[in-house]
Amino acid sequence: MTRIPVIAGNWKMYKTHAESIAFVQELAPLLADYSGVERVVCPTFIALAGVAEALKGTGIKVGAQQMHWEPQGAFTSQIAPTMLQGLADYVIIGHSECRAYLAETDETVNKKAKAALAHALKPIIAVGESLAQNEAGETDAFVGGQVTAALAGLSAADMAQVIIAYEPIWAIGTGKNASAAQANSVIGMIRGVVRGLYGETVAAATRIQYGGSVKPENMLEYMSQPEIDGGLVGGASLKLNDFKELVRLAAQAKGV
Fold first, then answer.
1. 167 is a catalytic site residue
2. What confidence category does residue 246 fall into, taking pLDDT thresholds of 50, 70 and 90?
3. Which terminus of the chain is more exposed, N or C, with fewer CB under 10 A?
4. Whole-model pTM?
């Protein structure tokens, strides 16, 4: 089964509202020739509306970086899924920075995944292990457990809307990265978890990204791996030419 490659730029806490709009206005024509790759930008909350408006008709999708699972309520500082409808196509859930700094747990990741799907948002569910877990040989057990917990209660039909992003914590913002073979192995394991839960057809269709110090210099190697369907990219997605190169290399590697 052919899976459409997907490159998502996670801008984290970078770019003002005005900078975000100016950036995507320049980015859109650079990516116009690569419609075979799904292209997603995930700006800060304050820039979502402006970026969504600026990207109308370009084919580039918009993602939010986080959300609460309740549709509304007394949750000061939080963003509800209902508030993202009409602005975002995707929402990142379970990023390690949210797990580390914002008390995200496997349980809240699962709640948010269900809430996203209930409100016509596609979750990009991030999973990944620490350096200590990696060095102790615990990657498969830990990451597999995160995947199982995140998908609890989701149906096979739901999985058509889900992207999983493998981001080893030790490779995020460190300049270190898993080798292409390592990343492909873990992502193959993740696909095996999905296969065990939903069967071969769903597993073969589920898109799984790699993230963690992804850049143009290593993108082709990652995307040439059979299990890797795209990238959840941080720093390189903040630069116009780098973002274009990531998408171009993904298209080249996957022949789209």
1. yes
2. very high
3. N
4. 0.96
